[in-house]
């Protein structure tokens, strides 16, 4: 729907579908990079839903993050994975948990987390990459 004085069409909340959140393979917890890519995609959708007051969409996005956090925790507890992979899954679970608690501060927290001695000690070979947060800022992690 278009409104006078608005450059872009305003999307009615009821016009949004939530197919993106059900996309097969949206959440990948293979490693730190794939988990961050997944979380970033969900974050973008969450913000789009929030911007148009789509409570169903924001709830579905949060639910997907919570399920992903639980999945990462479960993988971290698995005896089938080696110690290094279990440590990585615990870190991924932590990221998803922090996002659930403070999504608006997550990227700032993540930047600080990855600069910490603890993170660098646990993941010395993590190269990181440039991240763009909802098109507003970017930083390297």
Number of strands: 2
Q: Roughly how many Å is the radius of gyration?
A: 17 Å
Q: What structural class do the secondary elements suggest?
A: mainly alpha
Regions with little confidence, pLDDT below 50 for 5+ residues? 1-15, 130-141
Strand count, sense and barrel status of the largest sheet are: 2 strands, antiparallel
Number of contiguous helices: 5
* Percentage of residues in helical conformation: 55-70%
User: Could you tell me how far the N terminus lies from the C terminus, measured between alpha carbons in angstroms?
Assistant: 39 Å
| N-to-C order of helices and strands | HHHHHEE
Global morphology: globular
How is the largest sheet built, in terms of strand order? Answer: 1-2
Mean pLDDT metric: 83
Name the beta content range: 5-15%
Summarize this entry quickly:
The protein has 141 residues and is mostly helical.
Can you tell me about this structure?
The chain has a domain at 13-104. With 141 residues, it is mainly alpha-helical. The protein has a two-stranded antiparallel sheet. The protein has helices at residues 32-51, 55-77, 83-101, 106-115, 117-122; strands at residues 130-133, 137-140. β1 (130-133) and β2 form a beta hairpin. α2 (55-77) packs antiparallel against α3. The chain is globular, with a radius of gyration of 17 Å.
Question: Would you spell out the secondary-structure blueprint of this structure?
Answer:
Blueprint: H1 32-51, H2 55-77, H3 83-101, H4 106-115, H5 117-122, E1 130-133, E2 137-140
Antiparallel strand pairs: 1-2
């Amino acid at each position: 729907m278009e409104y006078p004085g608005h450059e872009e069409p305003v999307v009615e909340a009821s016009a949004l579908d939530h197919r993106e959140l059900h996309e097969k393979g949206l959440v990948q917890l293979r490693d730190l990079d794939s988990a961050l890519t997944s979380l970033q995609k969900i974050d973008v959708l969450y913000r789009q839903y929030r911007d148009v007051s789509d409570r169903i969409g924001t709830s579905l996005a949060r639910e997907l993050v919570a399920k992903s956090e639980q999945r990462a925790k479960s993988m971290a507890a698995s005896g089938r994975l080696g110690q290094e992979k279990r440590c990585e899954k615990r870190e991924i679970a932590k990221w998803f948990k922090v996002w659930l608690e403070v999504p608006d501060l997550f990227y700032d927290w993540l930047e600080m987390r990855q600069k910490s001695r603890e993170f660098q000690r646990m993941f010395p070979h993590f190269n990181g990459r440039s991240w763009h947060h909802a098109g507003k800022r970017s930083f390297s992690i």
